[in-house]
Amino acid sequence: MIELFMAAVTIGKLAAIEVRRLHAPEARQGAVADMKSVYAIDNSTIARYDKKTGRKTGEWRADPIRFSHLNSCSLRRRVLVCANSNYPQTPMASSAVWVDTQSMRPIRVYDLGRAFGSLTWIEWRKGSWWACFANYDGRGGEKGYDHRATVLVRYDTNFKAEATYRFPDSVLSNFAPRSSSGGAWNSDGFFVCDGS
User: Fold this and answer.
1) DSSP symbol at 196
2) Contact of 150 with 40, CB cutoff 8 Å
3) CB-side neighbour CA atoms (13 Å) of 42
4) pLDDT in tens, 92-135
5) In 3D, which of 36, 32, 119, 24 has the Cα closest to residue 70?
6) How far is CA 126 from CA 5, 14, 161, 173, in A?
7) Exposed, middle or buried, 68 (CB in 10 Å: 0-12/13-18/19+)?
8) Secondary element (H or E) of residue 189
9) How far apart are CA 142 and CA 131, in angstroms?
């Protein structure tokens, strides 16, 4: 049983208070919320739940061949922007998928092809898309690459790569043997990411 924890967090004090739990079996890869709903993400499924009642109010069951590893989504207005890859298959290939939160249907797919690794998350900030491409030790990794090849890429609005950034060794050592599966910019302009 997978449950989402809705919590109030005090930034800087590293304290969290559990507000309530929401049962969402689809939340195996990630979750994101807007004012009314929580979106639970699994490899080929995104389910929408009402925050107040916990009732499922919508779902997208994607073709698992085309969308085999939805890893995480971010919210941009009324649209989910999701990272999709062919993990654990190699060679690695990725795409960004836009899903309308009202209809729970994809409205755009941008094929990133064989870029820098396996797309695990994507965020919008100040006119650019920020995308993390994971590389792994072992399963899902490509020969000659490991977690140290994980890269953050800044794209323009047309998905032309403008810059690539490597993570510091101290962060990469925390990723090993996997990579980063989530990241976001906070309101103070700091970049926060996690390892998986």
Assistant:
1) -
2) no
3) 18
4) 999 999 999 999 999 999 999 887 888 999 999 989 999 989 88
5) 119
6) 29, 27, 15, 29
7) middle
8) none
9) 19
Query: CA 145 to CA 138: how far, in whole Å?
Result: 9
pLDDT, tens digit (0-9, with 9 covering 90-100), for 53-94: 999 999 999 999 999 999 899 999 899 999 999 988 889 999
Cβ contact 142:149 at 8 Å: no
Kindly list the distances between the CA atom of residue 176 and the CA atoms of 14, 117, 119, 148, 169, in Å, as whole numbers in the listed order: 24, 15, 17, 8, 11
151 phi and psi, to 5 degrees?
Answer: -140, 145
- Please name the residue that has the structure tokens 């980063």: 180
* Beta bridge mates, 166: 151
Q: Residue 73 carries which side chain, given as an amino acid letter?
A: C
Q: Which pTM value belongs to this model?
A: 0.85
Give the DSSP per-residue string, 132-179.
EEE--SSTT--TT--GGG-EEEEE-TT--EEEEEEPPHHHHHHHTTS-
